[in-house]
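dude i think i finally got it to work??
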Amino acid sequence: MSDALKVLYVDDEDDIREIAGMALQLDPDIELKTSASGADALSVVQDWVPDLILLDVMMPGMDGPQTLNRLRQDPARASIPVVFITARTQPEDMEMFMELGAASVICKPFDPMTLATQTRELFSTIQR
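look at this
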């Protein structure tokens, strides 16, 4: 599992987190952890550094953009690529997410059957 793509999936909605988790765990080349909040995600990355974070935009407490901002303030974690997962897909929203430092955006609702492939493809694109 050492060559596996380490992915942290962050979403406050249990059902969506569970569906995404199952979809991503079906891929033997993905090592997955999940978080239910931005604060929890920041805690997880202190002990486990993912290769990629899939981050919900709209969450109570600390939303996705605030979580990304906090990540970028930590020099040891600032370079982790973050992909927002959101239903907010208007061009101005997408532009704002990219300006905030997102590496990409996955639109909700996502297709569970292709989420793992989409995640791996995004990661390889980001790494180029």
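The chain has one domain: 5-123.
im so relieved honestly
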